[in-house]
Amino acid sequence: MSKNLLEHINNPADLRKLSLSELPDLARELREFIIDIVSVKEGHLGASLGVVELTIALHYVFDTPNDLLVWDVGHQAYGHKILTERRTKFDTNRQLGGISGFPKRSESVYDTFGVGHSSTSISAALGMAIASQLKGENRHHIAVIGDASIASGMAFEGLNHAGVTAANLLVILNDNAIGIDPTVGALKHYLTSVKEGKNPKQNNMIKSLNFDYSGPIDGHDLSKLISELERLKKTKGPKFLHIVTTKGKGLEQAEKDQVKYHAPGKFDAKTGEITQKSEAHLPMKFQDVFGLTLVELAKNNSKIIGITPAMPSGSSMKFMMDAFPDRAFDVGIAEQHAVTLSAGMATQGMVVFCNIYSTFLQRAYDQVIHDVALQNLPVIFCLDRAGLVGEDGATHHGVFDIAYLRCIPNMIIYAPKDELDLQNILYTASLGLPHPIAIRYPRGRGKYSNSEFRIQNLEFEKIEIGKANLLKNGTKTAVLSTGFIGNNVSLALENGNQPKTIAHYDFGFIKPLDEKLLHEIFSSFENIITIEDGTIKGGFGSAIVEFASENNYSKSIKVLGIPDVFIEHGTVEELQKICKIDVKSLENIFLNY
Question: Does residue 418 sit in helix, strand or coil?
Fold first, then answer.
C-alpha cells in the first residue's frame, strides 16, 4: 500500500502526477489528515469527509485554478484547502490569524468565490461562465452544491437561467440527504425516488430545465467519478451530475450521527468518541433558553407557531418540533419563504416565532420590510447568533441586524442582557404586540448557573415595551449598553480602580428608545458612552447620537461596538479585544472618565 502521498502534494499539479491506482490511498490519507487536525483544532468535520473522493477527482480532472471551482457554503472544502497549497497551515484553520473555515478569495487563487451562506454557487459559477464566454476563454466552471442547498430559491433561480444559456457550466449535486440537520421538503423526496430508481429518467426535472443530466453515481467510487467527469469535460453547455455520498464517510461515528459530527468539537481521532465536557455547572445556552421557553409558552397557547429555515438543532426549535410537531416547521434553507410564511400565518391570528440566525435574516430583508413591517404584522423574529460568533468569521457574525432593522418603520428591537430577560420578552411577545419585534441574543451561554436560573425563573414577567433600566448609579459619565455585552460593562465597573462617577444603564429596547430616560441622562451627565456588539455604523450608538442631535444636546458621546470593517475569525474573546469591547479594554477606557 502506498504511503505518505499527501505530504508530497502541495497543489493540484502535484496531484495530477499520480496514477489512478494511487488515488484511493490518497483519499484514505486525506481523510486521516482531516480527522487528525479537526479532532484537536475543531471545525466542520462530516461534510468534508463526505466529499474526499469528489475533491480529488475534481482537481485531478480539471485544470484548477484555470478551471473555476465553486463550493456551495464551504463546509465541505477542507480537502480542497489541503490540496491547494494550504496543507502545512491547515492546523490554523478558523483560528485568529489562520486560514478561514470557508473558501475565501483573498486567501487563495483556488478559492474562486467567497462563501459561507448557502445556495450561491450556481449563480456565481454561471456568472463566471458567461464572463468567460464573452472574453473568448476556454475554461470549465463547476459548482458543487448539496441537496439541502439546492432546495433554496436562489439555487433554482440559477438553474432556471443556466438552462437557457450555452454556458460551459457543470453543476454537481452532492446528495447525502443531510445539511446540518436532515434535509426536508418535497425535493428531498424527489431525489430519494431518483436514487431508488422509482422515478423514470424521462420525467427528470433537471433534464426538463435543459441540462445534460447524468447520475446518480456513487460519489465514493473514484474511477466512476473520474470517468464521468472526463466525459462531461467534453460536453458543451450546462451539465448536471448527481452523485450520492455519505456525510462523515470514513469515521464510523460520524456516519452514524451525522448531525452531531457536522461540527463535533474535540474528539478522539482513533475512536471518534467526542471529548465530553461537564456542563452541569455551566449556564444554559441562549438557544436552549429560547427553545425550552417556547415549549412552555406553547403549552398554554395553541396559537403559538415555531418556524426555522433549516436550523432546528442550532436554534433549539427542535424542542418545539418534538413537543408540538404540528405547530413547528423546518422549511429548509429558505429564509425568504420562512419570513413570508410567518407573515401569512400572522394574518390569521397565529402567534409566530420565526427563529433565524442574525446573519441569515439578511437573506430575507425584502420580506421583512414588504411582507411583515409594511403590513405591521406581529411576527416575532428570534435572532440567534447575534453579535460576534467566533470561529466561523465574517460570513457568520450577526453584527448588522440592529442597523438594518432599526431603519424599518413599525419594527421593535430588543436585546436581552441575560437569560431571564430573554424568557420574559418571549413571554411578553406571546401575549400579543401591536408591531413585529426582533429579539436578538448571542451564540453561547448566559450568565446564571442552572440552579440559579431555575430558582429565579418560577414565573414569567411582562416587560414594559420601550423601558430602559438603571444598573449602577453615577454622577459624571453614563454608559448605555444594549444586550449581553452589557455584562462586560458590569464586570469592568466592578474593578475597584474604576471611577465611582460612572453610571450604567441597560437599554434592552433599541427601538423604541426610552426617550424619557434619555432626556434625564443627557440633562444629568457630562459624558455618554454607548456599547453594543453590533456595527457602530447605524447601530444603537447611532440612535443615541441621533437623539442628541434632534434634541440639541451637545454632550460628549463615545460610541463603542464593531468598527466599520469585516471582522475575521477567532474566539469571541479575541474578537471582542480587537473591537475594544472586552472587559479589560473597557476598564482602560473607563479610567479616562
Answer: coil
- Check: CB of residue 140 under 8 Å from CB of residue 92: no
Q: Does the annotation list 108 as a binding residue?
A: no
Mark out the alpha helices in 177-324 (DSSP H runs).
186-195, 205-208, 222-233, 252-256, 286-299, 318-323
- Rounded Cα distance between 386 and 399, Å, is 6
119 is in an annotated binding site: no
Residue 370 annotated as binding site: no
The annotation status of 118 as a binding-site residue, yes or no, is yes
Q: How does the average pLDDT of the chain come out, rounded?
A: 93
**Which residue out of 31, 81, 86, 247 is catalytically annotated?**
247
Buried b (16+ CB within 10 A) or exposed e, 435-452: bbbbbbbbbebbbbeeee
Structural contact between residues 176 and 245, judged by C-beta atoms closer than 8 angstroms: yes
CB 507 within 8 A of CB 540: yes
Catalytic residue status for 363 = yes
Answer yes or no: are the C-beta atoms of 220 and 249 closer than 8 Å: yes
Residue 335 assigned as binding residue: yes
Q: How far apart are CA 4 and CA 29, in angstroms?
A: 8
According to DSSP, residue 246 is labeled -
CB atoms within 10 A of CB 293: 24
d(CA 310, CA 333): 5
Helices (H), 62-120: 78-81
Between 441 and 282, residue with greater pLDDT: 441
Is 335 a catalytic site residue?
yes
pLDDT in tens, 359-380: 999 999 999 999 999 999 999 9
pTM summary value: 0.93
CA distances from 324 to 110, 287, 290, 298 (A): 46, 18, 15, 8
239: part of which helix (H) or strand (E)?
strand 239-244
Rounded CA gap, 428 and 391, in Å? 33
Strands 556-562 and 502-506: unpaired
Q: Which of 81, 104, 285, 363 is the catalytic position?
A: 363
Considering 335, 391, 419, 532, which one is annotated as catalytic? 335
Cα separation, 245 vs 27, in Å, equals 14
Beta strand pairing call for 304-308 and 477-481: unpaired
Q: How long, in residues, is the chain?
A: 593
Pairing assessment for the beta strands 351-357 and 380-384 based on DSSP bridges: parallel
Q: Is the link from the previous residue into 65 a cis peptide, with omega within 30 of 0?
A: yes
Active site residue 86: no
